[in-house]
Design goal:
- By secondary structure, this protein is of the alpha/beta class.
- The protein has a 4-stranded mixed sheet, with helices on both faces. It has a 4-stranded antiparallel sheet with strand order 6-10-12-7, with helices on both faces.
- Helix 10 links the parallel strand 4 and strand 5.
- Helix 4 runs parallel beside helix 9.
- The protein is globular and about 70 Å long.
- The two termini are about 40 Å apart.
- The mean pLDDT is about 95.
- The structure holds uracil.
- Uracil (URA) binds next to helix 9.
Length: about 425
Amino acid sequence: MNPVDLIAKKRAGEVLSETEIQWWIAAYTSGEVPDYQMAAMAMAICFQGLNRQETTLWTAAMRDSGEPISFGDRPGFRIDKHSTGGVGDKISIPLAPIIAALGLQVPMISGRGLGLTGGTLDKLESIPGYRTDLDLQTFRSTVTTIGCSIIGQTGQLAPADRMLYALRDVTATVSSIPLIVSSILSKKLSEGLDALVLDVKFGSGAFMSSFEQAEELARALVDVSRANGVACSALLTDMNQPIGRCVGNALEIVESIEVLRGQGPADTWELTERLAVRMLRIAGEANHDDEAKEAVQAVVQSGRAMARFAAMISAQGGDARIVENTELLPQAPKVEAISAGIAGQLTAVDARAVARAGHCVGVGRERADQAIDFAVGIEWLVEPGEQLDKDSIIARLHWRERGRDQAVAHLRSALCFDGDIRPRTGRVRAEVS
Ligand code: URA
């Protein structure tokens, strides 16, 4: 096949065939199609799109560019959750052991943080000894015996996505919905899943700022996952305000442990529970939402979910004593109470400003190869509806040596005093199934 003809075909808005898509992705993965031709194709897709059938085929070809994980004839229903990413989004960490304690299996391949968005892997790596680079055999056996394992992407999983994602990043082609859908799903559909539940976020702290864009993305993700044989549904959730009180790697592990003790912040518990309920329902483990909710609450209250979390940490080389003693996690040398500096009734907390504050003290990274500081971050202390005076303490800043003054300015700019009070609970705005 001639790559130039295929680029021209897509540029003219024509539909690519199954054979053409399969050839294209295989040739890109092998190096026969170079980056500059893939960049031209990605730009043509940005303008002309891919229809659902093409997106389904493109996703399958990307998944098959590597070696998808197979659980063969090992028993069990395998399910995962994917979030499009947000500020303080640690939900995967308590959710996976809750679902494992309920008898399902969660083979979760997760990502690292970049820019303002945190990553589950970075949070887990703040646990002393925790390894996110298990070989696939150990990963499979951890999933089968404990019920959950969370690791990073390996070279064998969807290599075409790793290549294309880096290329999209530098060619202004990230924002195309079919390319986002195939990127997310090529990795998730490599996990050997029976079902997938998505948390698609919108708002100032999300990848998609508007509800309408997020809804379009959720619809496409659900359709393409199903067309590739994996049951799927999505929640559309508000990401204008940070999730929970903590933003920062080790701090978010502490908050995850609180959730597993049944004591986490209301919004964090609510989101964890809503996603767990969707997972149980899609797996056919509950006939209605109330029954699923009761089951979720029971495994948390009995300590069974926490026990799974500790078992997963141990299986991955980590120090499971952190579930009893969170002081074993990295601690920042300086913890400072930050005042509001202004009086008024708080109506909302801006997620993006809180993320920026975290970034200033070293929570995240600018480039994929940068080291991050596990110990630093923010504990947010005030809720919408509270009346603040200028000395009210709004947050505790955990910091080391850099970024303190800018972080304080961002934390204060996160305070919103206009409009109606917007509670942080009740984030789930719609469901796509
Ligand atoms: N996350 C991904 O994995 N891929 C995208 O294209 C966007 C978000």
